[in-house]
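Appendix B. Chain record.
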Amino acid sequence: MLQMDSERMFAVGLDEAGRGPLAGPVTAGCVLLPDDFPLELLNDSKKLSEKKRESAEKVIKETACWGIGVVDHEEIDRINILQASLKAMALAYRMMLERLPAWCASRGLPEIPECSLAAVADGTFCPDIGCAVRCEPKADANYPCVMAASIIAKVGRDRIMLDYDRLYPAYGYARHKGYPTPAHKKLCRELGPSPIQRLSFSY
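Structure tokens predicted for this chain:
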């Protein structure tokens, strides 16, 4: 249970998934963890197996206040992948903030004002959001709230890519999730770009 006091700042984690792929969206997670969250479930999402990521995501969504943001391939091409990643973080933060009053009420807590939030974003660029935010490389390896954000971003994006695999099975999105594997590049050369291809990326 979160303990409240008048001077406490609440840590919010932000991270993205999907900057490197050649297809599909970029996603981002935003998470505020409760004090009693089982931290042993967390790690950088890239260091967890798919099964452990999915198990952790379930607990995060059941106990934490969270949000997810998605920016599609067309907007990535329009504004570039960096700006799309920052926009996804801002969308995730906004969703988390909208859920925050109900989350506090469900735990018998007074509402947490936005001025009491302090965000940490993984990387070297900060999104434009309504609370204090700092960016730090490898934050997803050092801060539990950022680890949690990385997990929901990764699991959420993987689910989207599985849906796209059902729509466009020839491209093998269930296997490579749109990342630039040799097999994915070969398919793009043979079949042409899929409907979710990032056309501004090199193949």
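Further analysis of this model is presented in Appendix C.
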